[in-house]
Recover the amino acids of this structure.
């Protein structure tokens, strides 16, 4: 599985009053941040220090609908309240849940949707990268302020929200645990990706799913265009997730 950390484009900063308008909390303390629609350049640039041949070419993507995204990765406390168990290896109520498969994560979203009478789901790969780019530029000098990675974690996950957030107030999109995305994985998908609200290939050579964001054991040099992949049945101690809540 490949690690992934942020490479981000500048966006306008919100005032404290504006930020309050764009936040909500669902059941069991699942805090959410509003993400407005927009466009961005998705993929690995030609001059990347660590290129990713599966993340080319760079292509324009339009996110046509706003959505709510988890301010934090789903925690073990939240998982336990919804699912009635805790599969994690690195135990801690406020640490991200891990050792959950893609299917497990979707089941959590389904149950939370029933509780809150709305639609929770995994983010698409495009939505994930769109949010991940909303921060200051990440460098080797400041990466430790934004991410828990192999050089500053002592080989374990950490409590969510204890590094700096990005400019829209979302935490831990790099490091701590990889995050499941909805999409099937195809290393050549970017050559044929839709421009509007892409949801990944309709089929691929296998059923691997995308995982993004790097983990506590990842090298700190990779950026958000790097694509990870994992089988949907795998329960990996480096992989968790965050939720998206649809606006309608």
């Amino acid at each position: 599985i490949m690690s992934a950390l942020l490479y981000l484009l500048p966006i306008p900063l919100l005032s404290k009053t504006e930020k309050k308008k764009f936040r909500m909390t669902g059941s069991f303390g699942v805090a959410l941040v509003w993400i407005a629609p927009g466009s961005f350049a998705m993929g690995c640039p030609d001059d990347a220090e660590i290129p990713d041949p599966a993340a080319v070419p760079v292509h324009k993507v339009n996110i046509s609908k706003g959505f709510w995204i988890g301010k934090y990765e789903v925690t073990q406390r939240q998982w336990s309240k919804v699912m009635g168990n805790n599969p994690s290896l690195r135990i801690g109520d406020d640490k991200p849940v891990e050792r959950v498969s893609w299917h497990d994560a979707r089941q959590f979203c389904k149950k939370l949707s029933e509780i809150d009478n709305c639609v929770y789901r995994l983010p698409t790969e495009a939505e994930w990268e769109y949010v991940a780019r909303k921060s200051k530029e990440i460098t080797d000098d400041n990466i430790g302020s934004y991410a828990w990675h192999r050089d500053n974690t002592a080989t374990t996950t950490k409590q969510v929200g204890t590094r700096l957030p990005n400019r829209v107030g979302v935490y831990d999109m790099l490091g701590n645990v990889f995050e499941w995305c909805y999409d099937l994985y195809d290393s050549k998908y970017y050559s044929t990706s839709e421009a509007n609200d892409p949801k990944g290939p309709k089929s691929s050579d296998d059923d691997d799913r995308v995982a993004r964001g790097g983990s506590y054991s990842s090298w700190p040099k990779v950026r958000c265009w790097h694509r990870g992949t994992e089988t949907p049945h795998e329960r990996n101690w480096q992989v968790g997730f965050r939720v998206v809540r649809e606006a309608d």
Summary: The helical segments are 16-21, 76-83, 102-116, 125-132, 143-146.
